Amino acid sequence: MNTPGISVLTGKYMVTMDLFPQESKEFNQMHPFYENLKQGRFTTTKCKDCGAEPFPPRLLCPECYSTNMEWIDWPTVGTVIDHTEEMVGVPLGFGKPPLVHALLDLDGKRTFFVRIINCKQGELQPGDKVKLVVFDVDPVPQEVGREVIEIPRVFYAFEPVK
Fold first, then answer.
1. pTM
2. Can you give the pLDDT at residue 16?
3. Given 49, 85, 112, 125, which residue has the most CB atoms within 10 angstroms?
4. Residue 115: enclosing H or E segment and its boundaries?
């Protein structure tokens, strides 16, 4: 992860400034979520006992505390219910303003809050359709024997349907 403007940190991995989760199975039991993202699938877990579909995915059902969970696909297109645009104070690592977040309706029974990218200020309106976008984030360096390899990572956001 390169830190722009701080030359002494160029080429260094700043674990304390890393905004994205560790995705490999060695670091994260939710690694299937990220593997599914790499395939363009938006998934979560569903409790086989009570039917709850928590997001983000969980190993333990937050409703009935069961560990009897399965992976399911969610829609990759949603409708904006409402949104917010941040023009100043955008945190490091989020690029240039605006920083847009929206409350989405995925299929009439699921709503959640998500980042919207590739969207200019004032462009997004309630009722607009948005779609899943999977993008690469900085890889994580990992020592393997005497070598340091980079583990690729992805993350998600949504963008307006053009």
1. 0.81
2. 56
3. 85
4. strand 111-116
